[in-house]
Amino acid sequence: MLTKKRISIISLLIIVLPAFIYLYLNNFRTELIINGDLHFYYVIFSSAIAILVGLASYLEYKKNKVEKIFYISIGFIGVGVFYTFHALVTPNMTFGQFFEFPDMISNISAFVLFGDLSRFWLALMMFVPDNMFEQRYQIKKYFNGYVLLILFIILSGSVYFGLLTPEIFPVFKNDDLTDTNLAIITKVATLLFLGINSLKYYYSYKAKQNITILSFIIGLCLIMETVIIFMISKPWSSNWWLAHNLFLMSYIVIGLGVLYSYFDKQKYEYFDVLGQINRYTKLLEEKNIKLNQLANYDALTGLSNRSHFITTTEEYIKKASIENTTFALMFIDLDHFKTINDKYGHQVGDELLKIISKKIISIIKSNDMAARIGGDEFLLLLKNVSRIEIDAISKRILERLTEPMVIDGNTCRVGASIGISIFPDNGNTIDELISKSDEAMYRVKKEGRNNYMILSQQKKNPNPGHQI
């Protein structure tokens, strides 16, 4: 019976064994096996296997609707196309050439191009996110066999007509048969796609064991070994032939994984560890924002609550003391608000508080602070203001708050009694400043309401607002 430990050991052997074979071939078998006919038949056979894996992947997608499997199907259909043309342009075949090239270098360049392109195409399709169109049903309805057939025709037709004028293809080999920069970039990009995807599948397998995922890890590692060996070996050498075998083995392993998912109860299941971490991190940030909102802000009006206002003001007092600056603390208590609640109900009263809060915010500066500390009581922190600016802000607040406000067809009229204390004239602590502004507010209440008083003036504003 295949236990998880045995599966891991077998997987490791499949991945590592080619490295030892490569070392053996590199040290003891250095002769060239130049056989274009063998290469042609071998690659045609490999292309047929690739197309079969692509069709098997499509059947698995039809059964379980896993988006990633459809991309893999596209990947192997593309491998079948590009690898077939890789065979068709094999140099030095004895039974003739299918396409004409201006010279041998152009032939070899196209030959290498299609080999590299087949691996790049598969790596790209394996790299595509598992759920890119998870909620896009208008796109996913095109995930069908007709699309695969059309893709097969388009890729085959494009390459065929391109080979009629092969000079349009990018050059993958220099005159000395070394790789061009584009060929090197293609191989490196292939390795990057494969490596990133291998790590993603590795973390998925570590989190939740799945045979199909394991087959993908092994297959991707084998393709990476293939690309590396092709990068460092010469055409027709023993190592070069080894790379062909590894490439064929890679998609046989992936195909077996797809078939396992198709026939067994344990289906392909990708667990996106990094994605889950990002989602949990984002969720945690959102929760922290909500907790911060609940802890520091009034749920009804969105203004700061009493605790947050006091904490922030205490910090600002330290800053103002060091910088030797002054500020004002304004206590606002609405006049006749209880009458609105009793007459029209608390729902209208709540809407009125929201409107009043917005009016207050629109009057003060962006770096000032407003808080709702009780039912109809507000505190304002006015930074770096002169006595003239305090008068102007107070008058503006009285003017805006005494405007009639219509809520659900009900005309609401309130006023405001405002008491103002100045730092450091009326106190050096938040408790002293609130106490003094509260005292000034009650004096306004006693003297007729709907007015404001700056405590240090010890007298009512000579130009009061509208009296209700």
UniProtKB/TrEMBL annotation:
SMART domains: GGDEF. InterPro entries: DGC-Regulatory_Protein, GGDEF_dom, MASE3, Nucleotide_cyclase, Rev_trsase/Diguanyl_cyclase. CDD domains: GGDEF (cd01949). Residues 325-457 form the GGDEF domain. The keyword RNA-binding does not apply. It comes from the Bacteria. The chain crosses the membrane at residues 7-25, 40-58, 70-88, 108-130, 142-162, 182-199, 211-232, 244-263. Keywords: Membrane, Transmembrane, Transmembrane helix. This is Diguanylate cyclase (GGDEF) domain-containing protein. It comes from Alkalibacter saccharofermentans DSM 14828.
